[in-house]
Amino acid sequence: MLQIGPASKLAGVSVQSVQNYIMLGLLRPAAVTPGGRRLFDRHAIERIKLIHKMNHSGYTLRAIRELFIERFGTP
């Protein structure tokens, strides 16, 4: 489990991008510490990579969210 900084670095995006994905409902932390720190597992990191790749392929973040809802039932 990684905090947002190391997780974003591993995924190849900025911390701000990860925060934006969370705010838009595209991503949820795998866990939150008692102190409020968000933690991400390898599945979350793969999802960050997928969101980033789709966004840079021309999909809007709104379209990605809608696709996730259609495919997985949740963003």
Instruction: Provide the structure class.
Output: mainly alpha
- What string, H for helix and E for strand, traces the elements in order? EHHEEHH
- What is the domain total for the residues? 1
The CATH topology corresponds to Multidrug-efflux Transporter Regulator, Chain: A, Domain 2
- The chain-level mean pLDDT equals 94
Numbering strands along the chain, what is their spatial order in the largest sheet?
1-3-2
Q: How many helical stretches?
A: 4
Going by CATH, the architecture would be: Orthogonal Bundle
- Alpha-carbon distance between the termini? 21 Å
Unreliable spans are none
Would you give an account of this structure?
The protein has four helices and three strands. 59% of the residues lie in helices and 9% in strands. By secondary structure, the chain is mainly α.
Keyword list:
9% strand, 3 strands, mainly alpha, 59% helix, 75 residues, Multidrug-efflux Transporter Regulator, Chain: A, Domain 2
Structure in a nutshell:
This protein is mainly α and about 80 residues long. The chain has helices at about 5-10, 15-25, 40-55, 60-70; strands at about 1-5, 30, 40. The protein starts with a strand and ends with a helix.
Helix and strand topology:
Blueprint: E1 2-3, H1 4-11, H2 15-23, E2 31-32, E3 38-40, H3 42-56, H4 61-72
Antiparallel strand pairs: 1-3, 2-3
Helix pairs in contact: 1-2, 1-3
